[in-house]
C-alpha cells in the first residue's frame, strides 16, 4: 500500500465560491484516509461531470494501491480495465465472471483480503430483485468482515437514489447502505453516493456526509437543496458551473471551494456517443486464478440448479402420476356406480312376473327412490330411454357374453318344478301321471345340480342358492322405464303402490308364505309353505318361496331362515327419515293387500290362536271370492289412498283371506298349523 496520504484530484477555479486564499489553478488534494473511510456525496445533472469526478478519485486510489468496489448501474466503469487489473463481475458475457448472490462472500474476500478492485456491474440483470439481492449480500459481507479487519475500504454506489430514496419505499438494501453510512466509518468502510437528483436522495444520508461535490444543477428542487446546505448564493451559482466544475464542501477544513476536476485517464465508457467511430480499447484481464475461484462457485451453483431442475421434473412426474391415479379413482367410482345400477337392474329383473303365475308386473322401477329425469323423459324406446341404458351397456354385454355359465342345472330343475306347480296352482287340467313324472324329473335334476354345485361353491344347507336369471338390455329398459310420468317415487302413495304391486304379482301360495313370515318374523321356506297350505316337499317350498325373495319382501337371516322385510323396504324408501309410528302406518297400508282385516288389528308377531278368522260368506263370486257391496269397497279403497288408515279394508284383501289355490285351509283362518310348527322345530334341531 502506498505511503501517500493525499491524492491530487482537482485545481482551484475562478468565480463565485472560489477559494480566496488560493490562486486559480492551485492543486486541490483529498486526504486518502478521509476518502476511504468517510461518507461522500457527488451530484450533478447528466453531462455535468459527476461520473468523471468519481473515476478520477478511483484512479488516484488505484494508482496508490488502495482497493475499491464500484456498484455500476449503467455499465460505464469497465473502461478502468484499460489501465488497471480490476475484476469486472456482473450478468453480461462481457464481464470477467457472471455472479449471483451466492458469490457475495467470495467477492468480499477478494476485495478485503486480496486487495482486488471490483466492478460490480448490476446493469445486466433482467430482474431488479436479483440485482438488489446481490448488492445486499455483498454489502453485508463487507460490513461484517470490516468489523474484524478494520481495513480502510471504499464502496462507490452509482445512482444511489434508487436504493436510498427520499420519498420512502426503501427496501433492505437501502437500509443496509444507510447503516454503512452511519456506522461504517468506525470499522473502516467508507461509502460514496452518486446521483443526478439530490432532491430524490434521502436527506439522512446527505447530512451524514464528510465531503460533498455539487456539479451543475438546474432543476428548482435540486437547487433548493443546494441553498439549504451551502447557502443562497451557491444555489444560483450552481446553475452556471461548467463541465467538470463543482463546489467542494469538506468537513476536515470546513471550507467551500469552487474547483475544476481533472479528466479521467482511462477509457470513458459513459461518454455520449458522437459521430466519430467508436473504438473500444484493449482491456486488461484479471488473473485466471481469481476467475477460477469464482467459476468454481458458479459451477457449484449450476450443479445445484441442475439438481433442482431434475427434482422439479421428478416432482412434475409425480404430480402427473397423482393426477392419473385421481382419474383412475374417479373411473373406479364411476364403475362402482355402474355396478350399483346394474345390481338395481338385476333387482328389476327379479321383480318381473313370476314364471307360470298370474300376477301382473309391479308398477315400480328398479328401486324405491326419486324417479330420474330419464325415467320420465318418454314412454317409447327413443333417445331418452337410451340415455338411461347408457351406463349399463358394458355390464349387460359382459353378462350376455358369459352365457355359457348363466344356465345351471339348478335353474333347470327349479324351472321344471315351477312349471309343474304353476299348472297345478292355476287349476289347469294336468295328467296326474305327467305331473308326477315332471315332478320326479325336477327332483332328480335338482339333486344332480346340488351335488355338482357342492364341489365348487358353498350352498345353504337348508335350501338352494339365491340364483339370479340373466338380464338382457330389454329387461333393463323394461325395469328402468316401468314407472309412468304420474308417479313420483318417495311419496307415500308411490311407496305403498310399489310394494302392493310387488305383493299382488305373487302367486296365491307365495302370498300365504309371506303372511307366515309376517306372523313369525323369521322362519324357513318349508315351514312357511306348509303354513300357507302347501306340502312338506322342499322343492315345492323353494319354488313358491323364490318369488317372495326376489321381490325383496323377505331377506336372508342366516342358517336357512328368512325374515319379513316390508318394514325395512319402507324405511329405505324414506332414507330412515320416518319414525316407527309412521313406518308402521305405511306398512299396515301395504299389508291390506294380503293380510285379512282381523289379522291387521294385531301386531305382526301376535299368537295365531288370538287372531279370529273372517266370518264365512254365503254368496261367492264365480271366482271364489266373497261378494261385497261395490259402494263399500270403493269407499274403503278411497279412504285408504287418502289417509292410509291401517284398519281400513281393501277390496283386494278379501280375496287373500279365502282358500288357497290348492283347495286347502286358508292361512288367514288357521294361522300357523301344528304340522308347520313341528316341521320348523325339527329343522331347527
UniProtKB/TrEMBL annotation:
<dbReference type="GO" id="GO:0043139">
    <property type="term" value="F:5'-3' DNA helicase activity"/>
</dbReference>
<feature type="region of interest" description="Disordered">
    <location>
        <begin position="270"/>
        <end position="308"/>
    </location>
</feature>
<dbReference type="Pfam" id="PF26491">
    <property type="entry name" value="WH_Halo"/>
</dbReference>
<dbReference type="InterPro" id="IPR008571">
    <property type="entry name" value="HerA-like"/>
</dbReference>
<dbReference type="InterPro" id="IPR027417">
    <property type="entry name" value="P-loop_NTPase"/>
</dbReference>
<feature type="region of interest" description="Disordered">
    <location>
        <begin position="599"/>
        <end position="685"/>
    </location>
</feature>
<feature type="compositionally biased region" description="Basic and acidic residues">
    <location>
        <begin position="675"/>
        <end position="685"/>
    </location>
</feature>
<feature type="compositionally biased region" description="Basic and acidic residues">
    <location>
        <begin position="618"/>
        <end position="634"/>
    </location>
</feature>
<dbReference type="GO" id="GO:0043138">
    <property type="term" value="F:3'-5' DNA helicase activity"/>
</dbReference>
<protein>
    <submittedName>
        <fullName>Uncharacterized protein</fullName>
    </submittedName>
</protein>
<comment type="similarity">
    <text>Belongs to the HerA family.</text>
</comment>
<feature type="region of interest" description="Disordered">
    <location>
        <begin position="351"/>
        <end position="477"/>
    </location>
</feature>
<dbReference type="InterPro" id="IPR058885">
    <property type="entry name" value="WHD_halobact"/>
</dbReference>
<feature type="compositionally biased region" description="Low complexity">
    <location>
        <begin position="416"/>
        <end position="458"/>
    </location>
</feature>
<dbReference type="InterPro" id="IPR002789">
    <property type="entry name" value="HerA_central"/>
</dbReference>
<feature type="domain" description="Winged helix">
    <location>
        <begin position="479"/>
        <end position="597"/>
    </location>
</feature>
<feature type="compositionally biased region" description="Low complexity">
    <location>
        <begin position="394"/>
        <end position="408"/>
    </location>
</feature>
<feature type="compositionally biased region" description="Low complexity">
    <location>
        <begin position="656"/>
        <end position="671"/>
    </location>
</feature>
<feature type="domain" description="Helicase HerA central">
    <location>
        <begin position="20"/>
        <end position="111"/>
    </location>
</feature>
<dbReference type="Pfam" id="PF01935">
    <property type="entry name" value="DUF87"/>
</dbReference>
